[in-house]
């Protein structure tokens, strides 16, 4: 047994000195250990014949990963037993590959290996040499003499025919071979697709570029013959610009990886099939492969839309929204689409907010769809009776909602009459208001809610983020509307005088409000500790990339987080402003000063809050007798 151990020691020493990877060394050790156990159990000495018997008995229990290494290990053991050394003809295939390479491929490999010197360890360079030699000798056997004539088909065939098995084994090729192909890409010898091909082969992504649907290929060829396209090389430049934009906006690593995957797979599809790029071709490819993307489909589609944006406008707007489904407005009947579209263009040119334009679209869609359903095919056919019937059947939850729709439809009818689409230009008067203006009861936060809210705002351990605390305090302590809070900019704050000056979004009135210390501290903490360092004028930004300006809904979410059990219909974040105004009145602040604090012109709106000042209202109580109520004038 001592003699057997000497043989094993010689082989393991050889493997270490020749920089074999740890995986190969461990596989050899497993083989020799099992054989040693077999010899000990049988109480016999080693011989090549005994080793063959052991291998035949153990063959079915040896894993596929270890079978190749076990065979080679036993051959080396025989060499040492017979000759005292490992014979050259029994060295691993990839060691022999380099020595049989011809000048063209050998020079290319040497050039690549030389570029690694000083960058990585010698053992790593040796590993690259062995791995890449196997690839080069394969090319040589296929009649390839230069790396410049490499084809996708050859790389794929090499990957599939290589002796390694499974993702892990195949994955060993990924590093050295992909790095070498990337080097040759940088030299201009191969297209970019070769640098990522083996990686995606390892993860079974061939289905994304190997499509057998002939309708897809026919459609793409038709697009290429009838529209403008760019080369794959130009498309790759778009990819690099897109990656830079994503990095600058600090998208997470996983999002950037998904975006890159989308462009890589499309690029491989285009390059392996000899196609060029256009947004239409990209969407045809996406539609035919979207089922393979599964949960990533939305992100993949978005990345393709952003690339298409650069193709069209030579710039990428990372905040853009790309609708997957057509708007209902875009599905209007043909007879009404032209007039409705022109009216919407007018409103868009007038600078109305996106939310207002969406409301106009929704209103016009309901109106035109109703007219179409009753057989109207031209606005010239419209009568007052049609409009009244529409108003009767158009049901909303509240009169205010119905009025909101009717007001926009009324203006549309006025436009149609002005542009001579109607036989009767006065039809807009047929659509009346459904109710008169009403006075609503002022709702403020209760004492219990205020106690809970103050506890959350002052506690160190709270569910509220610093951003949510700052927003709530701006509403509670300064009475700011949510629209003004989300639009607050650094220039609006004067830290020296502890004040905030801004123009109100709702009234366009400029106000200059004193900033309480606790509000200033909350803003300062958010800016210094939690806010992203993005150079944007707005103070409040989204927490995730691309860290855009937030919307008003963030404010109401902050209130819901602090008061999760509060459920009062029609009482959103604006309740903080109402509570602020009411508290001022309760403290004896005059109506004029409250109006100034709220940034309102006049005290009409403030008078609504007076009814909540219970103590002072009692002082102003009138007797029922003086008012002639309840028969008190007869002293009964």
Describe this structure in words.
- With about 625 residues, the chain is mostly helical.
- It folds into five domains: about 1-90, DNA polymerase, domain 1, CATH 1.10.150; about 95-205, DNA polymerase, domain 1; about 210-315, no CATH class; about 330-430, Tyrosine recombinase, N-terminal domain (DNA polymerase, domain 1); about 445-615, Intergrase catalytic core (hpI Integrase, Chain A, Orthogonal Bundle).
- It is about 60% helix and about 0% strand.
- The protein has helices spanning about 1-15, 20-40, 50-60, 65-85, 95-100, 105-115, 120-140, 150-160, 165-185, 195-200, 215-225, 230-250, 255-275, 280-295, 295-315, 335-350, 355-375, 385-395, 400-420, 445-460, 465-480, 480-485, 515-530, 555-560, 575-585, 590-600, 615-620, 625; strands at about 495, 500-505, 510-515.
- A three-stranded antiparallel beta sheet has the order 1-2-3.
- Total strands: 3
In percent terms, what proportion of residues is strand? under 5%
Cα-to-Cα separation, first versus last residue: 126 Å
Tell me the count of domains: 5
CATH architecture of the largest domain: Orthogonal Bundle
- Rg on CA atoms, Å: 38 Å
Total of DSSP H or I helical runs spanning 4+ residues: 28
What is the CATH C-level name of the largest domain? Mainly Alpha
